[in-house]
Amino acid sequence: MRPQRQLDSREKAKRTMEKLWQDQEKTLYLRVNGNSMGDSLPHGSTIEVKFSHHPRLRRGGLVYFRRGNLRICHRVLFAFGPLCIEKGDANRYPHMCFRNSILGVARLVVLK
Known about the structure:
Blueprint: H1 9-22, E1 27-31, E2 46-51, E3 62-67, E4 70-80, E5 83-87, E6 95-98, E7 102-110
Antiparallel strand pairs: 1-2, 2-7, 3-4, 3-7, 4-5, 5-6
């Protein structure tokens, strides 16, 4: 019998997120870590993320997406075709992400 490999907390969290994304229409409550959203979502606030393969993106709405190994919550500036222009409220410049990297839409639940 082979010994099972121990998973670190980051890898466990990643697997959990991927499983939730595969199970459409699940909801998860997450704590904000970082200051890219400024005062609208300060560090330590709680957000509700509704996972969906085809989220309805609205200008000004919050999206939860992946960029490499990071999971990010930013505001939608513009969405067209397979692209989405997003920006953290405290960031200087917007970024582009693909719709297939968007895991779901988010909303603020508890402001810290």
